[in-house]
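dumping this here before i forget
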Amino acid sequence: MTTIVHSDFSTRHLGVERAEAAVETARQIRRGFDSAKGLSAMLLAAIVSALLVVADQMVETWADGHLMMAWVVMWSVGFAAIAVLAGTVRRFSAKVIGELNTWAARAAQARADERLWSIALQDARVMADLQTALSREDAEGKLPAKVAALARAHQSVATSHPLPYV
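structure:
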């Protein structure tokens, strides 16, 4: 007599599924984070608090016994400052974040150019590749300007003073 055993094991692991869901949630949270919004909120809070301090100093001098009126004026100044300054602060912070991103990209490109040049000085193959790229007609836009200038200078020195063992 033949007995057939059919085992129905799960092909999914619940722990792995939970971990994948957690990683995906973390990715979605990171995608939703905008540093310009955080900066604008902090700037807006700082400006509003400074305006409230000034308003408090002004209201304190004339609100001798009218505490409720002083609170109404303070809240009015706070809400008016938020309403008036929110767009301006948001645009300013977005511009600051954009400028910082541009600066970081330029700094990273400069570091990469320096790294490429130091490698080219140590490895003759990379230097030959750079010089070959410079000799082409369409090389102007493809090589970074700093690396191209350094490679041209190196090429002119190498041709004017050839090494005896080459």
